[in-house]
Amino acid sequence: MTITNGDAQAFFHARGEIQDYTKALEILEKEYPARDGLDVETLLDSDKHGALTYNDFLILPGYIGFPASDVTLDTPVTKRISLKAPLLSSPMDTVTEHNMAIHMALLGGLGVIHHNCSAEDQAEMVRKVKRYENGFILDPVVISPKTTVAEAKELKATWGFGGFPVTENGTLRSKLVGIVTSRDIQFHTSDADPVTKVMSTDLVTAPAGTTLAEANEVLRNSKKGKLPIVDKDGNLVSLLSRSDLRKNLHYPLASKLPHSKQLIAAAAIGTRESDKDRLKMLVDAGLDIVILDSSQGNSMYQLDMIKWVKKTFPQIDVIAGNVVTREQAANLIAAGADGLRIGMGSGSACITQEVMAVGRPQAVAVHSVASFAARFGVPCIADGGIQNIGHIVKGLAMGASTVMMGGLLAGTTESPGEYFVSSEGQLVKAYRGMGSIDAMEDKKAGKGGKDSKANNAGTARYFSEKDGVLVAQGVSGSVLDRGSVTKFVPYLIAGIQHSLQDIGVRSVKELHDSVNNKTVRFELRSGSAQAEGNVHGLHSFDKKLYS
Ligand code: IMP
């Protein structure tokens, strides 16, 4: 039989009475009082189907009544501080040092500087975040008048650029005496000569406080390659480079406190007495948010520390954790926590659940804690287990205000450490749990993070000084190269906007409200549903995620 127009009506008529199509909405409302899919409480009813994590469910699509670009991602990270993107990088020594923290903040998120290094090193990183000004090079390579032409040539080969400012002491904040450009040294054959013989001394400089736009203008008019910025005594404070002019991106989402031009700085500490001294140094360096870094945050140490920080530094916001239950959260909230970090055992480099028998699947942990904390206006971070944009949105749908990522960001250019080629010939970077034997042994040996030196304390999160035997809670490995966060984070942001558009909500707040009032619905995924939701049946494929 061939099917022609009108046959479908006959087909359905044969099965029973067919309704007038114009009444679809009326009938939906009258005859289907319950919305399609499950509300969040039913979804997470662990009596019925065990405790769920991100891959165990999906969010049902809603109505798209606006463009994805209309979706705003403003969200609180503490009681007082909000971000424009719900994305945090984890305080791990293979993830967040100053470079990651600067770029996460520029892109609307926040990087939390790890503490597996000396307090001095950590404070210096906080200072670099606070001093950062888009376009200005705050730690230029500076040489001294005694540097030889040969050494300058070597520096050029190492750094891939020329144009080194020469100061009296060979350091920043010392009197500027000249600039050595590539042209000055290129054809100079007496390599043993000091750079003072070849450097340019007819310098065009700009005073500290010059705006980026003004400095760019001076650079353009001067036709020079570099513009040194000097203080009133002629000391070098920063540098602007012509080759960077084109690269000076505009960062409209940059995380800044109202009325401040500086980026927000966050760092992690432990809960020992020595951490109080560490925090004092971080606060002096300009810290805004401190994270008390513990895998099990519900402890007398953390409660005391929260109270001490709130009393000693009322201007600093304290994020406590980690927690996965309401009871743990209640203690920390009562002690004055301004934010909570949720997750135990869900991290990609984590073996806590296997070894310690404690933890909780992340979706249910986030919902349980975040729905309770919301009653007290305490925002929550869903920390760990984020492998893709879908996981980010699911973490937010479970009530988190932000998500924290380790492994997903460890392979970016801005994470500490160098790329290397794996035995399979792929470009990778090291990534390790802070409770891995590697990280803990580095602590015992006083080695510190990958790019920082000596006297660290970060892995105190996983063992105490008195422990004779190290019990690993994490592994050490590598992750694939992901390029720069300046491309990756905008990809994550655009993806979250599209996902929220599919769900039919215009903001993170509307997502939270719509989950709570049961208009956003969910569905459980069986094992085969999960297989169906992934690429299947292809002979081969290339999973390129963004361009
Ligand atoms: P990821 O984004 O899934 O890689 O998880 C990152 C999170 O894992 C961090 O923010 C920490 O909460 C957690 N984590 C870091 N190191 C360890 C470890 O050694 N054991 C258990 N959890 C860890």
UniProtKB/TrEMBL annotation:
Assembly description: Homotetramer. Seems to be able to form heterotetramers composed from more than 1 of the 3 IMPDH gene products (IMD2-4).
Cellular component terms (Gene Ontology): cytoplasm
Domain of life of the organism encoding this protein: Eukaryota
Cofactor: K(+)
Protein name: Inosine-5'-monophosphate dehydrogenase
Subcellular localization: Cytoplasm
Protein family (similarity comment): Belongs to the IMPDH/GMPR family.
GO molecular function, one term: metal ion binding
